[in-house]
């Protein structure tokens, strides 16, 4: 719109210049044509006509320019109003976005604070876990920890009367736990040697791995021999096998699943084969849990069977008691029948005696015999 105003202004200026030039041109022509009065009069008329034309052109141009300026002002005002509205809306949107951004920043700061606290807690847990690992470097403490896990697992699955911890045999050897399965016992050992397996996992060179692996295999074989000799005692009520509780799934996997431990030569038994040969069955936390649940179901079935036998025995006793009661009732009925017959016989005799007494009384009256008063009362009682 600004450039339109400038262009219109230039056109108006050029028009004015043209009109002045046209006026001067006519004046020059009039001077050249006639110096007389007629020429002057003609020139005056022409000048007046040009003046009127110029005035009309100027008024028309001014009116047109004023109209265009008014339209331009209206458009500019409308544009400014629209721009002001857009600016206000944009300012409002920017304000809202800034508010949301401030809230998000506040939440992020809170989350960062929480993350910082969590980080500090994790650092503390890391230190505690390091201390925990240092504590369990002792084989005895680690064995006690395995026994604690075993106790928790047994108490969660089996009823209290289905197992015993630290069960002592006649040779004073104590097994970590025994499980009562039917009339016999299952021995469970939880003191598994893990030191050399940990060295095997941490070893960096192949030579160190081989050395740690060899030592671990020897430790496990010694432990299996010890379980076989100490805790498999059929003469004291145990089964001819025992369970070796391995507290780590990866160790159980290496021994029983991968089965690479202890296979240094073709003639040497693998650890799995060695365990089975000695009738010592390795169990991990997962497999032992499954075994205990299966055993719990079996114990429940045995308990139901035992209760069923007890119920059958009670029913048998009730049946015998019912037969005895029936015999007693039969005898009682027989006695009652005999008593009824005796009562009827006695009643008949009483009737005959009463008849005889009445005859005697009649005869006495006829003979005017006096009967004592107490005899009459006795006779009335007999009747």
Give structural notes.
The structure is a single chain. The chain has nine helices and five strands; from the N terminus they run αααβββααβααβαα. 77% of the residues lie in helices and 8% in strands. It has helices spanning 2-33, 37-135, 139-157, 195-202, 206-231, 249-258, 271-277, 285-366, 373-382, and strands spanning 163-168, 174-181, 184-189, 238-245, 280-283. Strand 1 (163-168) and strand 2 (174-181) form a beta hairpin. The chain has 383 residues and is an alpha/beta fold.
Protein traits:
383 residues, alpha/beta, five-stranded mixed sheet, 9 helices, 5 strands, 8% strand, elongated
Question: What is the topology?
Answer:
Layout: H1 2-33, H2 37-135, H3 139-157, E1 163-168, E2 174-181, E3 184-189, H4 195-202, H5 206-231, E4 238-245, H6 249-258, H7 271-277, E5 280-283, H8 285-366, H9 373-382
Parallel strand pairs: 3-4, 4-5
Antiparallel strand pairs: 1-2, 2-3
Helix pairs in contact: 1-2, 4-5
Uncertain stretches of 5 or more adjacent residues: 128-138
Please report which band the strand proportion falls in: under 5%, 5-15%, 15-25%, 25-35%, 35-45% or over 45%. Answer: 5-15%
Lateral strand order in the biggest sheet: 1-2-3-4-5
The ordered H/E elements are HHHEEEHHEHHEHH
Task: Please outline the major beta sheet.
Answer: 5 strands, mixed
Question: Rg, please?
Answer: 65 Å
Provide mean pLDDT, rounded. Answer: 73
Please count the beta strands (DSSP E, at least 2 residues each). Answer: 5
Quaternary structure state of the chains depicted: single chain
Structural class by SSE content: alpha/beta
Helix content percent band: over 70%
Large-scale geometry: elongated
How widely separated are the two ends? 154 Å
How many DSSP helices? 9
